[in-house]
Amino acid sequence: EKEKLHRIASHQSITPDGKSVQLAANISSFKELEIALTSGATGVGLFRTEFLYMDRNRFPKEEEQYEVYASVAERLGSESLVIRTLDIGGDKQLDYFELPEEDNPFLGYRAIRISLVQKELFKTQLRAILRAGMHGNIKLLYPLITSVEEVRAANAILEEAKQELRSEGVPFASNMPIGVMIEVPAAVMIADLLAQEVDFFSIGTNDLLQFTLAVDRMNEEISHLYEPFHPALLRMLQSTVDAAKRHGIKVGVCGEMAGDLRALPIWLSLGVEELSMSAHSILPLKERLLKTRQQESLAIFRQLQYCRTSKEIIAHLESFLEKQE
Ligand code: PEP
Ligand code: MG
């Protein structure tokens, strides 16, 4: 079985009826990149940079960050590397950066909200990413976006970073594509507006589920309520992808659901361009992709839209998987 999976690592990731989907990896370090590449990943759809800031006693300097981003980009060659800016707060804390005690840290001071206040910290990271853009195919991704204003404010700081580099004569990638995470219901509802501000969307199903269902993703007590196949999420996904298509931008998915075999017909039917997941999920998913027709997926998706419960949705998706065996 393992050998079979390894053989397909070099196959193109395309359905029998010709729909190709990029299967990329989620990584948080250079080390994880190697594992991802041996697992058949094409590019990195999510580089979680917060891990560069963790397990140390001060913020990483521009140069240190630049070196990491540039070596990952270089290792990937022309394949794309999506770098997400700092996403701390919530479940991720830094020893040397005191965050306020909060009743609801997941709804609190975190991610892009910190970056827009700690401008210098943000700019340091942006400078490092812009410079690393000279070594490969880097795209920039902002986390936890809830409004158009946030995108514009982040872009304004990005412009400052570019101005600085320009005046210092430091080379950088001036046309780096910008994307936003769609991981909050507000972002789904204004996806048409956001699509006009950015080059791509990356749907973060982990947080999107947490916020859509009002279920803490870390809380074991209520983990049975954390249902990826809830009809509400299905509608969220559809409306996000519709908005993106209407405005001609690409959509990827980078939450855990991207690697869930059961969800594949959903992605094929919606027509997402990229699925980014943990390295270990890539080959099993690719094996499925190679035998799942987009046409069949469309038929299944139509059935899912009539389902009223997660149970029904899961039943449809699982019976499809079994039929394929
Ligand atoms: C997500 O929220 O789905 C996501 C991919 O990001 P993280 O798990 O790092 O919050
Ligand atoms: Mg998230």
Automatic annotation (TrEMBL):
EC class of the enzyme, as a word: transferase
Principal cellular location given in the protein's record: cytoplasm
Boundaries of every PEP-utilising enzyme C-terminal domain copy: 4-291
The keyword Protein biosynthesis belongs to this UniProt entry's keyword annotation: no
Molecular function as annotated in GO: phosphoenolpyruvate-protein phosphotransferase activity
E.C. code: 2.7.3.9
Subcellular location, record wording: Cytoplasm
Co-factor requirement: Mg(2+)
Function as written in the Swiss-Prot or TrEMBL entry: General (non sugar-specific) component of the phosphoenolpyruvate-dependent sugar phosphotransferase system (sugar PTS). This major carbohydrate active-transport system catalyzes the phosphorylation of incoming sugar substrates concomitantly with their translocation across the cell membrane. Enzyme I transfers the phosphoryl group from phosphoenolpyruvate (PEP) to the phosphoryl carrier protein (HPr).
Family: Belongs to the PEP-utilizing enzyme family.
Record protein name field: Phosphoenolpyruvate-protein phosphotransferase
Native organism: Paenibacillus chungangensis
Gene behind this protein: ptsP
